[in-house]
Design goal:
Chain A: It comes from Gryllus longicercus. Chain A: This is MIP18 family-like domain-containing protein. The complex is a heterodimer. By secondary structure, chain A is of the alpha+beta class. In chain A, 35% of the residues lie in helices and 10% in strands. The chains are: A alpha+beta, B mainly beta.
Amino acid sequence: MGFDDLENINPKLYRKCNDREVTTEEESDDIYDEFDAREIFDLIRGINDPEHPLTLEELNVVKQNDVCVDNKNNEIKVLFTPTIPHCSMATLIGLSIRVQLLRSLPPRFKICVQIYPGTHASEEAINKQLADKERVAAALENNDLIACINDCIVVD
Amino acid sequence: MGKLDLIQTLSGHEGRVWNVCWHPQGNTLASCGEDKTIRLWFKEGSKWVNKDILTEGHQRTIREVAWSSCGNYLASASFDATTGIWDKKGGQFDCISSLEGHENEVKSVAWSKSGQLLSTCSRDKSVWIWEVIEDEYECAAVLNAHTQDVKKVVWHPHLDILASASYDNTAKLFKEDVADNDWICIATLSSHTSTVWSLAFDHSGTRLATCSDDCTVKIWQEYLSNNSEGIVTPDNNPVWKCVCTLSGYHTRAIYDISWCHKTHLLATACGDDAIRIFKEAEDSEKHTPTFILLATCANAHTQDVNAVAWNPSVPGLLASASDDGEVKLWQYEDN
């Protein structure tokens, strides 16, 4: 994509968080540990932005505080914040987060990916699309789209 | 109150199973899904076995399968934008036609009672009516009444009236205008607050049940012109009125609903992995009916339940399909 085509020419950058410190309890196979928000955040923070050579974490699109894990009910909710309210890439970003989680997590989880309330002009329409599993399934059979998503998900 | 007993788990599909459909005689079950195959299950002794696997009909996910009411044909709707017609003339099922026309994913396909009409719908927002003339399928109408993708089409149990459900939060009814052979929308059912995933007529065709992403089921009743309740019917077309809403039972999107024409039981397939059974209460009033929950089978599957279908000949026999890759057979019993 050429420089002139960028929607957000000069996005604000944020510092990456430190790597998770692994405790001895976590390394012990005898202790059952549940999924936590940091673990989910680690799965998605390295996803590349479709426009910039930056990660969703560096652009503050995903934040650990906006990840919610309910192990008891097998529910995971991720809110993401597009960098600008008219970002045309918001659906692609949401799909990339969803696909990354679908591929990484056990299938018992119900995954919900939504736009952080009030941060996008088409919030409701995009949330409805991302929640429609039939549309998501059909999109994932589209080779061009899946290539785009894989480009975002791939960790350099 | 009642309960659902698991009869058998039918494993074989790879990946998500989207739909199940019973042969009109009730002796064969067809299932389809993400693995692009249709599987046919027959009863041998007391067990159901997978005898046929139909492949090479579609390039992408098969979203739905439907038997014709004569039982000789099977239709399949696919994300590859085509609808397959399968025929058993040569002793085994072959794909004899591939109906093209939709711009993208075909999501549902249904045969009219007479077998002379077929309907399909798609993400391209259109509903198509096909006329069936000796194995030839001719497009009779393209209906663009919905403003978003159309999720499901079903025919009235006796008449050539079609019902459709859509992502635009409505259901619509269509029939042919005899004056000029044009298919027209005769009713729009608006009340759901999110996608209507599926719908089912009762045995008489005077009631329709819809299920939605808004976690509710709604029961709609037909009021003909000059009805004794004084409900106004513009242009003398029947009016469909929501007479009951079942809310508070389902915790996620309801993907399918089946209304048994023998037992009058309603079954729902839900994204919360459960199957629920409802029935109209015995002391229910016709115009303000009450439906009661008879059974909830929590964790009926380990993932979303996508489809439910009552067997047309064995009362209480229910088939379900799920994202967990399995098809299950259940028997409903009153306690």
